[in-house]
Fold this protein.
Amino acid sequence: MEIEAGIDADELVRMMEACGFGARRLAEAVNIYEEMLSGDYTKFFTLAGAMVPAGMRNIVSNLIRDGRIDVLVSTGANLVHDIIESFSHHALGDPEASDSELREEGVSRIYDVYVGDDDFVRFEELLQEIFPEGGDPMTGTELLRHLGSGIEDEKSILRSASDLTVPIFCPALSDSMIGLQAWLYKQTKKLTIDAFDDVGELVDICYDAERSGIVMIGGGVPKNFALQSMLVTPNSFDLAIQLTTDRPEPGGLSGASLSEAVSWGKIGPKARKVTVYGDATINLPLMVASTLTRLSRRA
Amino acid sequence: MEIEAGIDADELVRMMEACGFGARRLAEAVNIYEEMLSGDYTKFFTLAGAMVPAGMRNIVSNLIRDGRIDVLVSTGANLVHDIIESFSHHALGDPEASDSELREEGVSRIYDVYVGDDDFVRFEELLQEIFPEGGDPMTGTELLRHLGSGIEDEKSILRSASDLTVPIFCPALSDSMIGLQAWLYKQTKKLTIDAFDDVGELVDICYDAERSGIVMIGGGVPKNFALQSMLVTPNSFDLAIQLTTDRPEPGGLSGASLSEAVSWGKIGPKARKVTVYGDATINLPLMVASTLTRLSRRA
Amino acid sequence: MEIEAGIDADELVRMMEACGFGARRLAEAVNIYEEMLSGDYTKFFTLAGAMVPAGMRNIVSNLIRDGRIDVLVSTGANLVHDIIESFSHHALGDPEASDSELREEGVSRIYDVYVGDDDFVRFEELLQEIFPEGGDPMTGTELLRHLGSGIEDEKSILRSASDLTVPIFCPALSDSMIGLQAWLYKQTKKLTIDAFDDVGELVDICYDAERSGIVMIGGGVPKNFALQSMLVTPNSFDLAIQLTTDRPEPGGLSGASLSEAVSWGKIGPKARKVTVYGDATINLPLMVASTLTRLSRRA
Amino acid sequence: MEIEAGIDADELVRMMEACGFGARRLAEAVNIYEEMLSGDYTKFFTLAGAMVPAGMRNIVSNLIRDGRIDVLVSTGANLVHDIIESFSHHALGDPEASDSELREEGVSRIYDVYVGDDDFVRFEELLQEIFPEGGDPMTGTELLRHLGSGIEDEKSILRSASDLTVPIFCPALSDSMIGLQAWLYKQTKKLTIDAFDDVGELVDICYDAERSGIVMIGGGVPKNFALQSMLVTPNSFDLAIQLTTDRPEPGGLSGASLSEAVSWGKIGPKARKVTVYGDATINLPLMVASTLTRLSRRA
């Protein structure tokens, strides 16, 4: 590698292609992502880990607005913090602060990011206001689309997905502040969301996806839900990128190798695939910056 | 440490108490677990990672049958594999096998554990048979209790919980083969599970839990769902043990320190708490063996 | 797994043999270690990480005294703390203490273990006293044998190795407090240790080792030095166990797979080998306890 | 973060400053490195992990040639591969190749990088040729300076350090192929390198360093040797950056927090310091690219 002042993100990644270890994996991730975004693929994106509190929100919402995500699968927490960011900002904090003092001050900590109790109060007010009225049965994705349309901030992931009718799947929606608010709302009003209807909706998309690619940020439910939906179709993912800090050896799905997914039929035996081990708050921006640069040069 | 032939698991752990690093953390976990199981605590247990495929099933079901778990929060996958274990056995495999060859042979791999396609076929048949008829609205925990009562194997986690009326919460049930089967079932029959009703059920338990303790195996949705339910009550966990391979620095909830949970009010400021970093397939058996030995000596 | 009160360490490990993930690896490590200790092997043991401060000292010195280690390769720090333990004790501390306050109090921290400045003063006095007089050229292993003979505590690793004429190799001896003291000593007296003579000494042992086994605690210089010495002989290790927290993906030797060592010819293509990922302060005592139990049953 | 096509590495890092987790740590690392390279500091750089085989060689040698490293502390392996790169190239390989087949083909694997046996033959020939004649006593750094002057390739780390009289410390030189070759050379010729003389040389530099900064790539002997040398002086490091995949919890020095080093007096209580967890083959190029860009804008 020969690094000079002013080098752009893509030049940096291109030089990593001839390196070993993580650098090479990142370079391969960009190659695959370039293929995914320039070719004719149904593009899945899964989001786990506290990516929105960490500042990755606009990367995701811009990808949605630019037509670079066709299906988003997310944890509930990322959507909660997306809503909070629409009216407030997460603050930078100290990962070694006294957590009992923070509690007394009404501050909740997400590693080195702080959220104030007042933000959760406004979150509650907003949510109680924008929950759908009438109580007609909805799927989870319909609920999220409805919530997105009630958010003013156009940088919001939920709002962007709603504007572009990109479906957001959140199989564990009850496992989030949105879930708690939904339960509260149901104490006095009607809200009818079936626990399983989303399954079919995503399976249908997988059936129709002749060629498909997936970017997985972290593991968890989003990774598994996207992969399992492909499992019950004759298709499988053709391109797959995983940015994660989890490893295969402890056996959990979050850290499972992409090769393991081939044994299940979730990813195709000839798929191009790569896992980049490391912090996605570094690797995702670098991957996106490099890929967008390449796409713009092609244009 | 002075290790002699024939040393029992508890003697080993007791010597770890005077050691540093992981050994000391494990010894502290046993001290806390002994307090939890011998005192008057509402006992939560969360289960993430492929613990059932790895062979931890009977540890969990025995804890349930012996009254040592009051509330179980699980991933869907662990319940799926619990059902499969009720009629078949996971096989030991090779983590470096060719995954495309495994696919051709109809074998799905979970790191070094294999499951055959025929097991999934039997799983499907069993599930379609034991899904509740009639279509009356149920919560997720009610559905799981019903499924548990349809399983013959008394070593089953689902069956044990059903027998002892221990509620199992699985907020991401749709994100599992049970979810896929439920969606299939719903193509021709009626099944009405609300996405949010479980939330209130767990919150109620948390409200009533004057003193409570929690053991968390892995992170994920189970960890978050148990902690967030406590969040909306005036209570907080008094005892907390976390066995995990995840670390705090990447910021995700799975690896978040138990101290961080204090800032949210999920765990009490004076709670006894410890995280043991490492593979739970080693640390869970050792912790349980040592604790049971102590309890039996007290008796 | 069926865990009952009073279960001994070996029963626990035996049940792990039918499990997946880390449990299975640990069970395999015990199988290999049983073979190593009961068969006719030259037995190497490498020691990195702060194992002595963490309390693993007597495990190692007992293995030496019982003839279960033929060659020890260690970091300098473990030998330094072995000497300190011969007249004092490491204290249990708080991993989250204020490090600048600790400095003011004259306390040095090793994660959750404390060492006082006064211990280092006594260490200095002792070392300046027991350094060999005369200045005749010595190899590093000869120096360490000499130092060991000057230590009163029979539980000392250095003393035990000296008593049993087990060679201790410490290729980075200058990178430790022993190195600093040696340099100090040399300001006024003569001490002649060649930087490379140890290389030949270990290569000779490797040449003569028709069958050999190695236990590696952590990676670092000890792992590499033992493996590289085998490299230049026609032999290779027949049995290999690695207990580590490092992973292969970042490419460093510490986390390198044992399979990688086969490509170099350090470990034989048909060797039995296993890596157990996790904290060695838990996994080493468990492995040793289980193995010694088996050996005692054989006897 | 708002990422646009063509964004340069420094713009990317600047946006990370307002993010959480790893991104924020990397941004802070660049802030500290900018201060270190633009201010009046004695600049230490420690190099562990297989950074040269992974392609990081020119980054290090350019930093040396540009006067941005005053003292280099390295593992032996990185110097060995620096020499090999001076006449050949490491090849990109497959981390999942059959290691016994690689051995038959005479290929040694370093994760996903290959080195051929013929390269080691040429390495041997070159080294036997450039070892110093005469056998006069030398320190390790003098030996390395001599070797560097015998290397033709100006991109070599050893050659660059030799040209600029930047001392390279390698306390575990015997633990490398250079050590094996030195031992071989000594079978027939004279080579006199004292094991401890380097200690004083580095301590002297530390004594003279009124203000100092350190960049640590990986942990191991290089990290410890640089830190311990400061320990015996009245000084301590004022700036410290650590890029590593190791974590504090297992207690080893490699993963020890920089705060822990404050308790020892190695790093000052008011020092600016940050650890970036992740693969240094990604984080080092990004940190250097961003810092150089800033320095060039200042100029």
Notes: Chain A touches chain D through 51 residues (CB under 8 Å). Chain A has a mean pLDDT of 97.
